[in-house]
Amino acid sequence: MEKLQDRLKPGIFLRTGHRGAAGLAPENTMASFQKATEVGVDLIELDVQSPSDGRIVVLHDGTVDRTTDGAGIISNMSWESARKLDAGFRFGPPAFPRRGQSIRIPLLEEVLDAFPETAFTVEIKHSPHPKFYETLASIVKSHAMHRVIIASETRGPLEKIRVFLPCVPTNLSRPEVRNFYFLTRLGLSFLFRSPGTVFQVPVFAG
To answer: pTM for the complete prediction?
Structure first.
């Protein structure tokens, strides 16, 4: 498989499946990632954070309420508790066709191993666990060193993970994008410096 970093060149746009194929299957689940590969995306975006025991799970929200049949803050739950939840429970109202199909919140390493030919954007969500960045870096090194972009909207998580994974490409945080934009408007883009590699900016927001 071609290294992802070799595909990250000026003028190249990669078709990205947001949380897998979130409109077609329950977001951030194996079912969603499988659907994304079937429709032919170049890159799958997913979100990661940690339950109380420090595992790295694939989940967007800080709570499990919106996407599962459970309730509670993920960082206060154990992985054993989180893995029992039905992650297809809230998908597709009013019929909810994916309930009771053993769709679970996956671990990051499970996803990376299940799709060994797929490139991913791994977006860091808030995680208070003290070993979060070290654990995330270890998983990336072991399972997907050359097919991952690490992303975050905020600068702090990127600064931390860049220490552990200096050779893995990252996106530019919101402040970095803003700085680039204003310098470009002033004709001073040559002054912009960033350790980031990828702009992941929506066409519009708000």
So the answer is: 0.92
